[in-house]
Prior knowledge:
The protein has 481 residues and is of the alpha/beta class. 55% of the residues lie in helices and 12% in strands. The protein contains 16 helices and nine strands. The chain has helices at residues 2-6, 10-61, 68-109, 165-173, 204-209, 220-232, 236-241, 259-272, 289-300, 305-309, 343-346, 351-354, 363-393, 412-419, 423-452, 458-480; strands at 126-136, 140-150, 154-158, 180-185, 190-193, 277-281, 312-316, 328-333, 336-341. The strands form two sheets. The chain has a six-stranded mixed beta sheet, sandwiched between helices. It starts with a helix and ends with a helix. 28% of the residues are buried. Keywords: ATP-binding, Membrane, Nucleotide-binding, Transmembrane, Transmembrane helix. This is AAA+ ATPase domain-containing protein.
Amino acid sequence: MQVVKILGLQHNFTRRIQDLREADLLAASKLRCTITPLVSNALGIFSPAITLAVYAVISVALGGNLETETAFTTMAILSMVTHPANMAMTIVPRAVTAFSGFEKIQAFLLRESLQTDRGTLPKGSTAIQIQQLRISYKQLVLEHIDIEVAAGSLAIISGPTGSGKSTLLRAILREVLPVRGTISLSTRQIAYCAQKPWLPNGTIKDAIRGATEIYSASDPDNEKWYHEVTDMCCLTHDFDSLPHGDLTRIGSGGLNLSGGQKQRVALARALFAKCDILLLDDTFSGLDGEIEQTIFDKLFGMLGLTRRLETTVVLVSNSSQYFQAADNIVVLGNHRIIDQGSWQDIRVKAASIAKFSSGHHTSDKAVLSANSDELSARLRTKGETEIDLARQTGDPALYGNFPIMFMDATNMSLGYYLSSIDFMNIFFIITSTVSYAFFISIPQYWLRLWTEFGGRNTAFYVCGFVLLSTLSWISTSAQMW
């Protein structure tokens, strides 16, 4: 929606969507007119009128009259019978849908159980063990992958674009199933930070800590850990510059945060979980050089946070400046491992990584990132609340001149739908509702008058009863339409 508004296409899209909706309503109008008013309501409304009319005509033909006891007893019985019958008509399509769902559930339950070659390593020296891994879709992605990551160590996976680095992390997460080979882990407590992280539309603090019901704000240990994690990810300065600090709303898709801020929030979320294994998919690519170096040293340096917690870290990165801090470096290429070992072991073969690795970030990248952060901060300072409110409720310009009482955030959606109904439509709905309530009740009194006059003037009262039922049916059909 932000792109649509920037390009000035808001009204064009609104008109186009409105035209499509009108075409949809027109195409379905015959179906609604036939099924909804006629079938759903006709049974309950016309059954008493038709039954009494037939009974009255037969009674007159046989020389009898319509008696009060007979008339009202018949009405009561019909009322008890027609309502369940009407409900049964609406249950049929639901039952068909339910049986269709049962078939899907049965097909799922009858499938063979998923067999995954995932072993469990004992707590000890090895945290991740990959043996003879092969992954392929329509084309081969990885094969002959053998990796062993020691517990509490830092492993860096490097390689050119498309070499399967992210796929390897997803295989460790069990999001990608290998064709062959095994992946064994010492724990199931794994934190993952994607290259393009997903952040919920809440406050930054909630995104990092998780649900407030789980991590209570009153817990001093969690609060202390939260502040330590945000400091490690260099978010403290950002909180000071944001209008509401860490209570600033992220916005849909991280609308109110820059790319680097989203990466750091996702990293803080992964660290806050205190998992034994931490998987980072090129997490530092969106950061400028100074912040990237600071975070790396705080987390993965000799006295870094992950070293102190003995967290096993697998980092996807092509920044060779960090290779010397890694305990194990895996270089991917041509769908396989082309080199593996410590930095001391592979730096003599620097040609294997020189083509795709990058050193320190250039000043141009830092300037671009700084400009992006500055622009984002300006936008948030000027109107973060209005941006996020517009994201949640839509553009107020679409609401026309609807009364201001519907312009608060809670009732904005209701106000939008009601604003599309003009005065004549509202008057029509109210009139139809009142008419239905009137015509559905009057036949009871009409029947009493009929019986009080001894059942005479049968044709007059029968026509009146049928007419009232017809008007009732028309009113409720118009109301539903």
